[in-house]
Amino acid sequence: MLWACNQPFLVMIIYPALFLALVSDSASSELESNWFYLTAGRISSRVLWCWSKNGAVALLAVFFTALLFLGFGVLGGLATSFGGSWSRLVYLSGWKYPGGLPLSCLAIPPPLVALRIFLLLSVGLAALGAVALNLALVARRAFWGWAAGVVLCLLSYGAWHQLHHPLSFLLPSLHLLLAAHRECNPSMPSVFTVPASMAAGAALFLIAGMAGRLNVSKRDL
């Protein structure tokens, strides 16, 4: 489970792309319904609808992350049962902690490592999902929301993993990766901590929600 949740390509591109596809599918159903929620003509109804959709994205992010944990937890249990002492050999080699984390993370209790990964993925995916959802509703094309989210993820991955740019922590999908944070990677800026990432994700979620609220409240019937 730790390995699957700390591989940069999986965490920064594959998981967000799959999650954003679910969000875009939800946006498609709303767009195909011809914006039925606007026919009431009341601003309060529109705003309530908008925030309910963003809230649904947040719940979907938690559910999606829980499914990842459950699936990889089961697979990890089977691998541990039948795979012998592979983790002990990796640890003794001194190369890296099983799961893709450096040895410095051994000081962190495993349940706390798992909790941090879960929170980072849930908050980060909720933020990316809110951005994709509201872009799709603004553009009236679900594809553009998904495409914008995937482009952000590709930029994050390229800037950090390929270019090693010092400002790559400002891009959103790097916040999903625990191994990239200051607690596990001393080379990262001191401001790039797990609590800071969660706060940034929550802020991005609220900003996307507010932008969607303005769009919905001013949209013509």
Automatic annotation (TrEMBL):
User: Transmembrane region positions?
Assistant: 56-79, 113-136, 143-160, 196-216
Q: Which domain of life is it from?
A: Bacteria
List the keywords (alphabetical).
Membrane, Transmembrane, Transmembrane helix
Q: What is the name of the protein in this document?
A: Uncharacterized protein
**What organism does this protein naturally occur in?**
Ammonifex thiophilus
